[in-house]
Amino acid sequence: GESVGLHLPTLSVQEGDNSIINCAYSNSASDYFIWYKQESGKGPQFIIDIRSNMDKRQGQRVTVLLNKTVKHLSLQIAATQPGDSAVYFCAENGGGSNYKLTFGKGTLLTVNP
Amino acid sequence: SQTIHQWPATLVQPVGSPLSLECTVEGTSNPNLYWYRQAAGRGLQLLFYSVGIGQISSEVPQNLSASRPQDRQFILSSKKLLLSDSGFYLCAYKRHRLGGYTFGSGTRLTVV
After folding, report:
1. Which of A52, A66, B16, B39 has a CA between 20 and 30 Å from the CA of residue A73?
2. Does B105 lie at the interface with A, CB-CB under 8 angstroms?
3. What one-character-per-residue DSSP string does chain A give?
4. Which pLDDT does position B98 carry in this prediction?
5. Percent of chain B beyond pLDDT 90?
């Protein structure tokens, strides 16, 4: 469910390194997953999505991995840049609910120059 | 193309005053619409969602209400604001079952 009352976990990386942000989901019936990026003071923006019939999907500098066995989702960012500094949220579309996405608690990524 | 507009961007209101935040969507019909609130450094809390005109579902009991007078218009209201209503309010829409949300730019509400 939504962990809205918890402070965000943080990840700090050096510019140029690869970043891996993890997310555990709870609904084994979820069939669609999304990663969002939220910069300070802005609304979340779509990064990449994946359907449950896939285990990997690649975009530009980003890769999402889905492990349905352990209900785990990860976002990999290659050659992390200062502009990647933001809060990253995973979201799942539960198979039984057509209307609502369930968001993870978010991870604050800080990229050090 | 589809766009979502949310205003105002920032708002400072005294305790006990009313609130009206508006969200409109362009370029799509019959979207699902959502209001979220986000406290500083926290996650996203779903407040209301709507699957059609006049249809509002509330996720948490609170001092706020929502209305959908037109297909692409979603309004968040309060009759009397509380200090605890301060936060970052986000409107979003969803077009398909297997699809993500598109978020608005948010409204930063400070109740003083």
Report:
1. B39
2. yes
3. ---TTSPPPEEEEETTS-EEEEEE---TT--EEEEEEE-TTS--EEEEEEETT-SEEE-SSEEEEEETTTTEEEEEESS--GGG-EEEEEEEE-TT-SS-EEE---EEEEEE-
4. 67
5. 74
